[in-house]
Design goal:
It is built from 14 helices and nine strands. It is α/β, with parallel strands linked by helices. The strands form two sheets. It has a six-stranded parallel sheet with strand order 2-3-4-5-6-7. Strands 8-1-9 form a three-stranded parallel sheet, covered by helices on one side. The structure holds S-adenosylmethionine. Its cofactor is [2Fe-2S] cluster; [4Fe-4S] cluster.
Length: 348
């Protein structure tokens, strides 16, 4: 099945289901190694032994939503809230540019204190100051008009994980106000507007089954996003999911590899959540077929406040200021950092 998936880029749902069941088995280590190696080879064929770096600016932890899994949900009264000004965001970009970064990812909760025009102004200011840099937005669900405004202001990419492609599961992770249908509509609007678009999901979120995962894989195949974000679910102590178990390293790596085989040219990050559950998570993600990392470029004083899940890492090689540490960790596994803009191959 692994070979057929690698050759054809897809399998019928029943076979994907069987493959996941088999690879999740404790004893399947040998097969998992074959899978990782095959996915790694596919990634290297497109991107070489290189990893794109993005500067992640977590510019607000205010959010109007109440996703049950998320530490910055509106209902978490213990969260210490912050939002950055345009000038503070530009300072982060200035620092990032000096470090050699050429993509800035502006991520935050759905914070309505920034008007659509404010966000457009921030994007336009970054693009005017550093025209050779790419701007990625990751600020949730908004109207098509707002997405258009930001695209016209110069935004290049947009990350919006679909979280789960199963309706009932979506309902277990989110309050009734939020719907999978609307999230998917947003993703299609973003694609239509010419954004390099990112979807994705957490592995091991409460209530997730193998059938849910197969639906995720099917949805991604249909959407054909340029970027796919996959990381383990990790509980946060002040959320309704505080006592749930985290997603596993193995299952996350298996899914990264399968997604790589189904999307040979997608930009696939090895996520902070992966490196939070395992000291070697970043490297293992790369060795399973990922080709992007997003070190933290937020100001020091707020990093610890963007706490989506317990013990989220933002220091050492997670910090954009320590790209040297990241580079030497990658060198140890035979990879180098690519300081290019790192557009999706179809957009180059
Ligand atoms: N508000 C934007 C949105 O909804 O896309 C962007 C910010 S949101 C915090 C970014 C991502 O964090 C989500 O898509 C979700 O998958 C991930 N996330 C949130 N809570 C998490 C948790 N407890 N464990 C792992 N990932 C989590």
């Amino acid at each position: 099945l692994i070979r057929r998936l690698a050759d054809t880029g897809d399998l019928p749902d029943e076979e994907l289901c069987r493959l996941l069941e088999q690879l999740f088995c404790h004893e399947a280590e040998e097969y998992r190694d074959i899978l990782y190696k095959t996915a790694r080879k596919v990634s290297v064929q497109t991107f070489g032994n290189k990893v794109y770096v993005r500067g992640l600016i977590e510019f607000t932890n205010y959010c109007r939503n109440n996703c049950y899994y998320c530490g910055i949900r509106a209902g978490n009264k213990k969260a210490s809230r912050y939002r950055l000004t345009k000038e503070e965001i530009l300072l982060c970009c200035r620092e990032g540019c000096a470090l050699g970064l050429r993509t800035f990812v502006l991520q935050g909760g759905e914070d309505m204190a920034y008007s659509p025009q404010d966000i457009g102004d921030i994007v336009a200011a970054i693009k005017q100051t550093w025209p050779d840099c790419a701007v990625t937005l990751s600020i949730g669900e908004h109207s098509r008009e707002d997405y258009l405004l930001w695209r016209q202001a110069g935004a290049d990419r947009y990350l919006l994980r679909h979280e789960t492609a199963d309706n009932a599961h979506y309902g277990k992770l989110h309050p009734p106000k939020l719907s999978l249908k609307h999230r998917v509509q947003c993703l299609y609007s973003l694609k239509e507007l010419g954004y390099q678009t990112g979807a994705g999901f957490m592995v091991g979120s409460p209530g997730q089954t193998i059938e849910c995962l197969v639906k995720d894989l099917r949805f991604l195949k249909k959407l054909q996003p340029e970027m796919i974000g996959i990381g383990p679910f990790i509980p946060h102590r002040d959320t309704p999911f505080a006592s749930e178990s985290p997603g596993s390293l193995t299952q996350t790596l298996v899914l990264l590899s399968i997604v790589r085989l189904m999307h040979p040219k997608a930009l696939l990050p090895s996520t902070t959540a992966l490196s939070t559950i395992d000291e070697k998570g970043r490297e293992l993600g790369i060795l399973a077929g990922a080709n992007v990392v997003m070190p933290n470029l937020s100001p020091d004083g707020v990093r610890k406040k963007y706490m989506l899940y317990d013990n989220k890492r933002s220091e050492g090689s997670e910090a954009a200021q320590h790209l040297d540490q990241l580079a030497s960790r990658f060198a140890a596994i035979g990879y180098t950092i690519d300081f290019g803009r790192g557009d999706a191959p179809s957009f180059r």
